[in-house]
């Protein structure tokens, strides 16, 4: 009975993953997907014998599209664990503090776009890729070059990798969906799918017309830049010319994290781009290393997800006004 449910959930989640990550065209809401994934996680936790090595609970992202060169990531591009309420966040905090008691957190807006990685050599942008399945991504360098927020030269001559979120603003998505409706084309369901669909174009002229932007939020080799904390690494890349979202904050306690979430749950409507949650990261890089990663996500970070209804309302507004 339970085994049958695991098989059912696996089949559905694999189908939804392909629609979402490979074709940028989901058939169910994120909330529905998250609900099914959570059900599978809970069954597997109580019945570890039912967990398969290829379960959707251990996979990151989707497959790599044909038509793009493949890029093997130097460091895996992981997903993030999810928190849906205060209880999940307090549990995360006590898990962290048991191992690394003297940490603080950086809270960042969770931009609803597509994770991409940028590589620089001798101060020049040389390559950029999607997350793909976390190990292998798609080489979308030519398309990324069309994004003005991405510097093509930087004042730093060693090898450097910077990661972040490529995204489409609310206004651009609205304009694009209106145009698509007039042309009888399918609408993009959300900013993430619009950004992904625009970046995974074989013709970079199409990408350049989509007016994408990017916020950078991670430097895998931050310690080599002399940084001790994640916040320092954000300041460092900002100085080099990367676009860093200005709304991040260092929080000393989980109560301060909760206050940040509360603030942005209301203020998010005023932002010109969509956010779907808040990302909470341990600030100290040494402590991040001590905490380490699971196969799917770092143990030192978590994504708080806003309830989905509000996001869907915004999209319905766009679709119904076209
Ligand atoms: P995630 O969206 O939960 O979190 C990880 C991602 O957050 C990163 O890869 C990065 O792209 C993004 N991010 C944005 N701002 C960030 C910041 N400041 N710091 C770090 N990361 C930041 O994980 P995921 O694996 O990318 O996707 C899972 C999500 O996709 C879930 O919300 C799920 O509902 C949705 N999904 C939906 C369907 C569907 O059919 N509707 C299918 C698959 C997945």
UniProtKB/TrEMBL annotation:
NAD(+) binds at residues 30-34, 79-80, 108, 131, 165, 281, 305. Transmembrane segments: none annotated. The active site is at residue 110. Belongs to the NAD-dependent DNA ligase family. LigA subfamily. DNA ligase that catalyzes the formation of phosphodiester linkages between 5'-phosphoryl and 3'-hydroxyl groups in double-stranded DNA using NAD as a coenzyme and as the energy source for the reaction. It is essential for DNA replication and repair of damaged DNA. This is DNA ligase. It comes from Turicibacter faecis. The lineage of its organism: Bacteria, Bacillati, Bacillota, Erysipelotrichia, Erysipelotrichales.
């Amino acid at each position: 009975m339970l085994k049958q449910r695991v098989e059912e959930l696996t089949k559905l989640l694999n189908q939804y993953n392909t629609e979402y990550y490979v074709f940028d065209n989901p058939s169910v809401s994120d909330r529905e997907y998250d609900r099914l994934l959570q059900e599978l996680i809970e069954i597997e936790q109580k019945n570890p014998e039912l967990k398969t090595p290829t379960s959707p609970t251990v996979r990151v992202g989707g497959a790599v599209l044909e038509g793009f060169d493949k890029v093997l990531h130097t460091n895996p591009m992981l997903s993030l664990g999810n928190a849906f309420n205060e209880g999940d966040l307090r549990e995360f905090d006590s898990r962290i503090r048991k191992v690394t008691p003297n940490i603080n957190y950086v809270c960042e807006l969770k931009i609803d776009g597509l994770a991409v990685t940028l590589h620089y050599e001798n101060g020049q942008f040389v390559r950029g890729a999607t997350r793909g399945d976390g190990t292998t991504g798609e080489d979308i360098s030519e398309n990324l070059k069309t994004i003005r927020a991405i510097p093509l030269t930087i004042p730093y001559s060693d090898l450097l990798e910077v990661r972040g979120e490529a995204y489409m603003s609310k206004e651009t998505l609205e304009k694009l969906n209106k145009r698509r409706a007039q042309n009888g084309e399918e609408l993009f369901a959300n900013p993430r799918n619009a950004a992904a669909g625009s970046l995974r174009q074989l013709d970079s002229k199409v990408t350049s017309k989509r007016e994408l932007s990017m916020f950078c939020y991670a430097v895998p080799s931050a310690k080599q830049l002399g940084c001790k904390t994640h916040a320092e690494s954000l300041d460092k890349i900002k100085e080099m010319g990367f676009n860093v979202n200005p709304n991040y904050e260092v929080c000393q306690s989980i109560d301060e994290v909760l206050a940040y979430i509360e603030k942005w749950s209301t203020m998010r409507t005023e932002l010109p781009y969509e956010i779907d949650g808040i990302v909470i990261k341990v600030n100290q890089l040494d402590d991040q290393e001590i905490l380490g990663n699971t196969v799917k996500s770092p143990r030192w970070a978590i994504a708080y997800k806003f309830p989905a209804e509000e996001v869907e309302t915004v999209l319905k507004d766009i679709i119904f006004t076209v």
